[in-house]
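Question: Hello, beginner here. Any chance you could explain the protein record under this note? Any guidance would be welcome.
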Amino acid sequence: MGMDVGAKKGPRSDINITPLVDVVLVLLIIFMVLTPLMEKEIAVRVPEEPDQTQPVEPPPADLLQILFKVDEAGLFHVNNETLTDENAIDRLKVWYRAAKSKESTQGPPVIFFDADDKAKYARAMKGLDTIRDSSPGWTIGMMTEKLASAATGTEPTPPGGTPPSPGTTPAPTNPPQ
């Protein structure tokens, strides 16, 4: 067993890692402090549960509800009207003007968006882009549940109208020209 006695001549080649550890610890502390601040947030307004003791007012007789659907085949529909990619924006502008004309009684123009579960994602996004491109004034409501009338297989009653006879197709609801 040998021992080193005395100093060797020449430079020492040991690596001093103390500054490296200091820098790494400072970076670790910086990242630990900044990470919670970098979280992304989206403001979501959650609807409140309606008070069950107060009676619900029926909708006005001239209520204009606009439903934009993307079906399984990727076709666009507004209420009962089928749209093509070429005329979708123009037709939505007509619907927007009709909804805007009733703003004083019904509030801002709202369009309900419903994409079929089997519709392609790209077509659903194209539908949302089409709504946005037709007018920036739309308030878009995303439908997450099927209408009760769709579950029973009956068509909804048009506002102020009579329910359709069984086995008949209701007339499409079109905006004024």
About this structure: DSSP finds five helices and five strands in the chain. The mean pLDDT is 78. The two ends are 104 Å apart (CA to CA). Residues 18-34 form the longest helix (17 residues).
